[in-house]
Design a protein that fits this description.
Distance between the termini: 45 Å
Structural class: alpha/beta
Radius of gyration: 22 Å
CATH class of the largest domain: Alpha Beta
Strand content: 15-25%
Helix content: 25-40%
Length: 475
């Protein structure tokens, strides 16, 4: 049996191996010949790149749904059955089933051997709804097919799944459950010992459970790793937590601040964020040699027109190494999507089916501004934060203890300056065509936050500089 696993791409897809598919590879029976196709690093030409396989599995998120459906249609036209899974297929199984022979709703790794058996027996079911798996038995992902030199030079590791925070706009808890599930620390350490120096934790929060993280990071310290990851502000308010992360090798964190306004963070359910403490927390991280990439979202019902300029100024005063600004996006399956749909405020209820899914963003009617004002403010935030004067103000205010952070600051920020002016303001948004090439769009795009955020989101516009060795990836 020959099986192809496909990771379709959107213009915003990151140059990272898809570890979810790596776990499926590890769960695949040894007598199955595996082919892995990553549309990001090797664009998939639907006319020429269809393989002679018996089964195709495609991982789908909302921004890659249109692309995934097109690839699936080409295989099914040749009589090859297609199985779809991933966060979008789990949120919209009925839609996905129109484009696939089977859909896995939820985390697919435990049920994957059964899918293979059913296919071999000619008894493939249309829907599989597995229980959330216990991560005690999760195998390390297979990495032997992740060899493309275009990948960012980090080894991606997962330690946990699930999130209890009720953020209205986020789909993590919808897809992975509202309770934490952890891999045994022994398993994580054993995997880390086989990997290189540069590690990226794929967890949504690397220090959400104090006892677990304490054991993991204390045991990591002798390994000499340098790592980056994501965490919530609730976990870095305490000095002992930050000191432990730094000791274990933490060099940079992606933190979702979302808003600088108390009213907004409470309204969205992100009560662990306290805007009045932002600067103090960032300074403590900097004192320990940890850089911060902050994320902010515009378009909440509590946002007014002043929010764009105030956010940029506060992000400068916070001395962030970098910042990302996003327009609120109603992802299917989230409470936000259901509420906006019920209120009749969605302007394109299936925006993910567009060829260029960002062209019409925002896909809802804001409360205190027009859609045009929201997009204009978003563009202004990106361009103003990455002006040379803003870079200089943030640089001279910094107190990083490591020369690595200081040396990486300028190339990373000039990279983002290019992104802000060419892609965000200039409209050089590109998306996949059937032949796999990137087609340029026109006008500002609505840059939405990822369904499952990752600490590094380097796009096609940025990666050529990284591949040429001109940009360090830890700032």
């Amino acid at each position: 049996m020959r099986l192809e696993l496909i990771a379709p791409a959107s213009e915003d897809s990151t140059f990272l191996p898809r570890m979810g598919l790596g776990v499926l590879m590890a769960r695949t029976p040894a007598d199955v010949e595996l082919i892995y196709s990553d549309d990001v690093v090797e664009p998939f030409d639907i006319a020429r790149d269809l393989k002679d396989v018996d089964l195709v599995g495609i991982s789908v998120d909302s921004k890659t749904a249109r692309r995934a459906y097109d690839i699936a249609a080409a295989y099914r036209a040749r009589g090859v059955p297609v199985v779809m899974g991933g966060i979008h297929a789990s949120a919209c199984p009925d839609e996905a089933l129109q484009h696939a022979d089977a859909v896995v709703v939820g985390e697919a790794d435990v049920v994957w051997p059964r899918v293979i058996r059913d296919h071999r027996a000619g008894e493939l079911k249309p829907l599989y709804r597995p229980e959330l798996p216990d991560l005690k038995d999760m195998p390390p992902p297979r990495r032997d097919l992740f060899t493309n030199p275009k990948y960012i030079p980090f080894e991606v590791v997962q330690t946990m799944r699930g999130c209890p925070y009720p953020c209205e706009f986020c789909s993590v808890s919808t897809a992975n459950g509202k309770t934490f599930r952890f891999r045994p620390v022994d398993h994580v350490i054993a995997e880390l010992e086989t990997l290189g120096k540069m590690i990226m934790f794929a967890d949504d929060n690397v220090m959400i459970h104090r006892a677990y993280s304490k054991e993991l990071f204390e045991r990591m310290a002798p390994l000499g790793k340098h790592w980056i990851g994501q965490c919530s502000l609730a976990t870095v308010r305490k000095l002992e937590n930050v000191a432990l992360m730094a000791k274990s090798g933490c060099r940079a964190l992606f933190i979702g601040f979302e808003s600088i306004d108390d009213e907004t963070v409470k309204y969205t359910g992100k009560r662990q964020n306290r805007p009045e403490a932002y600067r103090e927390i960032i300074e403590m991280l900097h004192d320990h040699g940890i850089s911060v990439w902050g994320s902010f979202v515009f378009g909440f019902d509590t946002d007014r027109l002043s929010v764009f300029d105030r956010t940029v100024e506060e992000a400068i005063q916070m001395k962030l190494t970098m910042a990302s600004f996003a327009i609120l996006t109603p992802y299917p399956g989230t409470p936000l999507y259901r509420r906006l749909l019920a209120e009749g405020r969605l302007t394109d209820p299936k925006w993910w089916l567009r060829d260029d899914h960002d062209e019409g963003s925002p896909y809802y009617v804001p409360t205190h501004m027009t859609r045009e004002q929201l997009k204009e403010g978003w563009v202004r935030a990106w361009t103003n934060f990455y002006t040379v004067s803003s870079m200089w103000r943030r640089f001279v205010l910094r107190k990083d203890s490591s020369w690595i952070q200081a040396a990486g600051f300028w190339p990373l920020n000039f990279m983002q300056n290019r992104l802000a002016h060419y892609k965000i303001a200039g409209g050089q948004q590109r998306h996949r065509t059937a032949g796999g090439e990137l087609r340029s769009g026109v006008g500002p795009t609505g840059g939405a936050p990822a369904q499952v955020p990752t600490p590094v989101g380097f796009s096609e516009l940025q990666m050529p500089q990284i591949r040429k060795g001109r940009l360090p990836v830890i700032g």
